[in-house]
Design goal:
mainly alpha, globular, ABC transporter permease
Length: about 260
């Protein structure tokens, strides 16, 4: 019994190692002083200053535009890619190529996209970042939807076709409702990844506009302040909320499928 208790020590130590810096960051975002390392009292003034910072507001707007646009593209293409890989083309090689953007280092993918944009003479801007984020987010959406599709009941689709429904009608009225939890979870994951992504955006956005992670990078070069901590805390809250919502939706879909 005592030995079993000792096995919990590395487990909790790992959690402390992972989340202690996050807890410190959030606590220091409510610091009344200007130091990011010495807590002087509770205050919300840094969150108020964020709301008045025009550069932060513009970066937030650009980030939301990129996240929403890339999520929409990645969700549609990722869902179709998952359906094609599971139902129409069984190939481990194609599976590997489809999921490759998810495992490639961000720096390699960013440089590759930048070179590709240069070859086709595409002017960099928010739309180039949207396309770039859609490339790697699509792989994550496909992975999530594919898992859901593998566990889906194919008898319903067969019954739909036997009753005279065409492939498109069957896909829209039978397949998509079954995949809805996986699609929503994949979309939330894609939104979260795009919201926090820095490297690819830094290489593909150009010089006229900035996303919020790039704004944070330019601010942190002069030192960490409670204002940056407050901004990071807000991003953490949005990211955690999206991830938890995606997991919850996936579990609800799985429980309904079992029933």
């Amino acid at each position: 019994m005592g030995r079993a208790r000792w096995l919990h020590v590395p487990f909790w130590a790992t959690y402390v190692f992972l989340y202690a810096p996050i807890v410190v960051l959030v606590v220091m975002s409510f610091n009344s002083g200007r130091s990011a390392y010495t807590y002087e009292g509770f205050s919300l003034k840094w969150y108020g200053e964020l709301a008045q910072d025009e550069r932060v507001r513009d970066g937030l707007v650009n980030t939301l535009i990129v996240a929403v646009g890339s999520t929409a593209i990645a969700t549609v293409l990722g869902t179709l890619l998952a359906v094609g890989l599971v139902r129409h083309t069984r190939s481990k090689t194609l599976d590997a190529f489809a999921l490759m953007p998810a495992v490639l280092p961000d720096l390699v993918l960013a440089i590759g996209l930048l070179v590709f944009y240069g070859m086709i003479q595409l002017t960099l801007g928010l739309y180039s970042v949207i396309l770039a984020h859609a490339v790697f987010s699509m792989a994550f959406v496909a992975a999530v939807v594919r898992t859901r599709l593998t566990n889906a009941d194919t008898s319903l689709e067969e019954a739909s076709r036997d009753l005279g429904a065409g492939p498109v009608v069957t896909f829209v009225k039978v397949t998509l409702p079954q995949l809805a939890p996986g699609i929503i979870a994949g979309a939330l994951l894609a939104f979260t990844l795009s919201l926090d992504e820095f490297v690819i955006a830094f290489f593909t956005i150009g010089n006229t506009e900035q996303t919020l992670p790039i704004v944070i990078y330019s601010m942190i070069r002069f030192g960490v302040t409670p204002k940056i901590n407050a901004l990071a805390a807000i991003l953490l809250l949005v990211s955690f909320t999206a991830v938890i919502a995606g997991q919850r939706i996936t579990k609800i879909g799985e429980s309904r499928a079992q029933d």
